[in-house]
Design the sequence.
């Protein structure tokens, strides 16, 4: 018979083989490399406070990109939203000042890509829309197959 016991050294008293788990974000927020991450979190929180103040049609097309000195830098996804955001500049400046930012101007940049990921069902027709002819025919065929022969008789 062979001996299956480990021949490694026994663990030291008080030593643990498993280190204490550290959350990835906590580890990323330690040291000098954390400054860009903290700033991104701050900008995201600021974006979540300012963008809802925009008109509902404009809000999905605008995003706070930066706070550069005394300027708020917004990013929009087309020129039409650029013009509409400029019209909402005073509302945004007042809101930013009310939360303690010393800003006096808004800069708007236009992106060539969508700012937010499209919804998963963006390609689907709206719920409650008219079904296609093929869908109607398939539904009628299913309903016809469910009818019993007695249902077709008229008295």
Sequence:
């Amino acid at each position: 018979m062979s001996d299956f016991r480990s021949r490694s050294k026994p663990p030291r008293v008080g030593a643990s083989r498993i280190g204490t788990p550290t959350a990835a974000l906590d580890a990323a927020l330690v040291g000098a490399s954390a400054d860009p991450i903290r700033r991104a979190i701050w900008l995201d929180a600021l974006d979540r406070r300012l963008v809802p103040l925009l008109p509902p049609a404009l809000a999905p097309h605008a995003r706070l990109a930066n706070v550069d000195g005394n300027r708020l830098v917004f990013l929009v996804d087309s020129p039409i939203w650029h013009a509409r955001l400029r019209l909402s500049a005073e509302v945004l400046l007042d809101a930013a000042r009310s939360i303690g930012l010393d800003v006096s101007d808004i800069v708007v940049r236009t992106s060539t890509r969508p700012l937010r990921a499209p919804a998963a069902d963006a390609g689907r027709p709206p719920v409650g829309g008219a079904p296609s002819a093929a869908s109607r025919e398939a539904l009628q065929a299913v309903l016809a197959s469910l009818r019993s022969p007695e249902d077709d008789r008229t008295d």
About this structure: The beta strands are 62-68, 71-76, 105-110. The longest strand covers residues 62-68.
